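We treat protein structure as text, and this decision shapes the records that our systems exchange. The remainder of this section carries one protein's record, kept here as part of the documentation:
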Amino acid sequence: MPYIISIGKKPPKHSVKQEHAVEFAKEMFSSTYSNIDRYLKAFENAQIQTRHFVEDLSWYQENHTFEEKNEAYINHAVTLGVQAIKHCLTREDLLKNEVPFEEIDAIFFISSTGISTPSIDVKIINELPFQETIKRIPIWGLGCAGGAAGISRAFEFCRAYPKAKVLILSIELCSLTFQHDDHSKSNLIGTSLFADGVACALMVGDLTEYNYYVNDDTYVNILGTQSNLLRNSEDVMGWNIRNNGFYVVFSRNIPSIIASWLKPNVESFLKRYGIQLNDISYFIAHPGGKKVLDAYKECLSLNETQLEVSKRILMKYGNMSSVTVLYVLEEYMKKKLGKRGQYGLLAAMGPGFSSEQVLVRWE
């Protein structure tokens, strides 16, 4: 079965404390909500301390056209994507030897926060010495589920081509979607949660010479994946795309949907491999927010320890959409938190409304 042997990440340079984000939101939304202080409690309840944005906070106080924001998306995505890939292929704590660019067979590019044709992966390939025959699989529109879905699609590729080495590159610059004229509660809540981030994972097929590259106790074996779609739920999460760009769709019912819908999907998935929920030692959850993590805990009967890493990533980085679950997995790998032979479940949910689950085992 394929393995994830390295993850590189590149947070944008502007670190914003949550108390400064509260001041920003108060300035932006106070004219709409007379009781704005009550709504601003969402920032405290999110249990986020810091987030990273590609621009200084003052940049977001000014109005920008869709063209300006999308141009910023392209420029920052290329710069940060190049750095994340370099980190992934060269980091000494996860790899015994660097992986040459020329040995990468495919790139799965994941994003939902900007538009580019040709896609961003082309612009990044032109900056790095990849082979000209590299395969490109850009995936757009999966939102928070995108990182897990990228792993799933890369897993299927490496099953078909067991000698392959592939990258899953996830870039989400959520801050660039902020709309000055959107005073909805969804936009206010999104302002309390979402952040920018970039991560790149390296997956290899089981017929590669991966033992030459991996360090002991740091890599994970992908055993299988499952996708689920909740019919007629397009209004739960996503974008409305208008003249000024992306307007967030963010239902307050997301935690309750997770609580009622996720467990049967997870149980049917694990049953295919002859295991049960109590066989899962590690829950590598996309931390969509505190209420989302609470819903995971309730419906899957998880303990606090199983969600500790996800909570820590949410606290330090906020919700970076598809990128976040890769940050969670990277934390497990770099700190060697997984014990050999134990199972983990990587999970994320996103627009559709959909879920993506990945069963892993530490090697």
